[in-house]
């Protein structure tokens, strides 16, 4: 295989975009481990004047990820995120107006490998979110596991990320006067294992917790489909029933997060590496589904709303797929 190297005369802006995405990928893959290692080193070498105050503060701050987090507009406004967004680039598209006097749940699909669209649109100040949805604050809900990692949890919260626990989602949706949006990547870690280019498999049939919490709060559900999310990386072939998929699923059940074996392009060449491809992402926000408040919803009510949500998600996909290069015969597969 002939290696295709990047030309030397690439504009500075594109080089900065590559650097921005590289630091994001490395942060996603390694920063939590580095933060844990720092704490261990401080303990081993008895830098008690550093780790004792932090661990004491951590004890009292432990529940913050379930209480709205601790976002930082300064971090969200770092110039690195503008270059990150422009690398792909990432676009946010609104199809219906939302009422800022209400709270909403955005169901984000698909997970992809690293959820780049959700991060770029809802965790930085360089998307069009504030112009398209004035008066709203978005919270991206992620696995509680990441908030158990010292230091890393604090960095993660600066982006506006919070835990995906029931308590955390309820806290966001309980804001009086509205204006909050819970962004939940409904397919979760399991769906990332099916994030192959050209595939549209969504793990949603058994995901009904978001429907129940929408009913108990009377919160409208909004389907969101991020076209291009699955095109950013390739994965080692792992069909259902293969030994690799079996190992991945067992590890996912043990650890709570998946380990997709992905690859794409490199930093200085285009054949192999962990850098995502420069593929555009179009995150389309669909029509809100009104949800009457039902404090104690029955299984039948949950199932009915769940079916309605899947129908609206399919309609959203079908209405926009041709705009983003998806052929007529392609359709969503719900699992």
UniProtKB/TrEMBL annotation:
Q: Which GO terms describe its biological process?
A: diacylglycerol biosynthetic process; glycerol metabolic process; triglyceride biosynthetic process
Give the reactions, separated by semicolons, that this protein catalyses.
a 2-acylglycerol + an acyl-CoA = a 1,2-diacyl-sn-glycerol + CoA; a 1-acylglycerol + an acyl-CoA = a 1,3-diacylglycerol + CoA; a 1-acyl-sn-glycerol + an acyl-CoA = a 1,3-diacyl-sn-glycerol + CoA; a 1-acylglycerol + an acyl-CoA = a 1,2-diacylglycerol + CoA
Where do the TM regions start and end? 21-48
| Annotated compartments | Endoplasmic reticulum membrane
Please state which protein family the record places this protein in.
Belongs to the diacylglycerol acyltransferase family.
Copy the pathway line from the protein's UniProt record. Glycerolipid metabolism; triacylglycerol biosynthesis; Lipid metabolism
Database matches in Pfam families: DAGAT
EC number of the protein: 2.3.1.-
Membrane association type? Multi-pass membrane protein
The record ties this protein, via InterPro entries, to: DAGAT (IPR007130)
Q: What is this protein called?
A: Acyltransferase
**Keyword Iron part of the UniProt annotation:** no
Entry GO MF terms: 2-acylglycerol O-acyltransferase activity; diacylglycerol O-acyltransferase activity
**Main localization (coarse):** endoplasmic reticulum
Which domain of life does the protein's organism represent? Eukaryota
Q: What keywords tag this UniProt record?
A: Acyltransferase, Endoplasmic reticulum, Glycerol metabolism, Glycoprotein, Lipid biosynthesis, Lipid metabolism, Membrane, Transferase, Transmembrane, Transmembrane helix
One GO location term (cellular component) = endoplasmic reticulum membrane
The gene for this chain is: MOGAT1
């Amino acid at each position: 295989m002939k290696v295709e190297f990047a030309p030397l005369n690439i504009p500075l802006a594109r080089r900065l975009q590559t650097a921005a995405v590289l630091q994001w990928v490395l942060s996603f893959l390694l920063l939590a481990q580095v933060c844990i290692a720092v704490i261990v080193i401080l303990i081993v070498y008895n830098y008690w004047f550093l780790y004792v105050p932090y661990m004491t503060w951590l004890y009292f701050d432990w529940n913050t990820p379930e209480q709205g987090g601790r976002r930082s507009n300064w971090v969200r406004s770092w110039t690195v995120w503008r270059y990150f967004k422009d690398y792909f680039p990432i676009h946010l598209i609104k199809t219906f107006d939302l009422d800022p006097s209400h709270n909403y749940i955005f169901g984000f699909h698909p997970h992809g490998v690293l959820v780049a669209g959700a991060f770029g649109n809802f965790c930085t100040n360089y998307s069009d979110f504030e112009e398209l949805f004035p008066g709203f604050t978005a919270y991206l809900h992620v696995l509680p596991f990441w908030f158990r990692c010292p230091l890393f949890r604090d960095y993660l919260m600066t982006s506006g990320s919070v835990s995906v626990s029931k308590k955390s989602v309820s806290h966001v949706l309980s804001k009086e006067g509205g204006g909050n949006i819970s962004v939940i990547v409904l397919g979760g870690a399991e769906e990332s294992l099916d994030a192959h280019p050209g595939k549209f498999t969504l793990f949603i049939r058994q995901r009904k917790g978001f429907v129940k919490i929408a009913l108990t709060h009377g919160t409208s559900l909004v389907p969101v489909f991020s076209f291009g999310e699955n095109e950013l990386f390739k994965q080692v072939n792992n069909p259902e029933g293969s030994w690799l998929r079996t190992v991945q699923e067992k590890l996912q059940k043990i650890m709570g997060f998946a380990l997709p074996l992905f690859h794409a392009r490199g930093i200085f060449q285009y054949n192999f590496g962990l850098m995502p491809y420069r593929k555009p992402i179009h995150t389309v926000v669909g029509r809100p589904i009104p949800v009457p408040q039902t404090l104690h919803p029955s299984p039948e009510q949950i199932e009915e709303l769940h079916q309605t949500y899947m129908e609206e998600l399919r309609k959203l996909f079908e209405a926009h797929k041709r705009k983003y290069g998806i052929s007529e015969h392609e359709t969503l597969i719900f699992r």
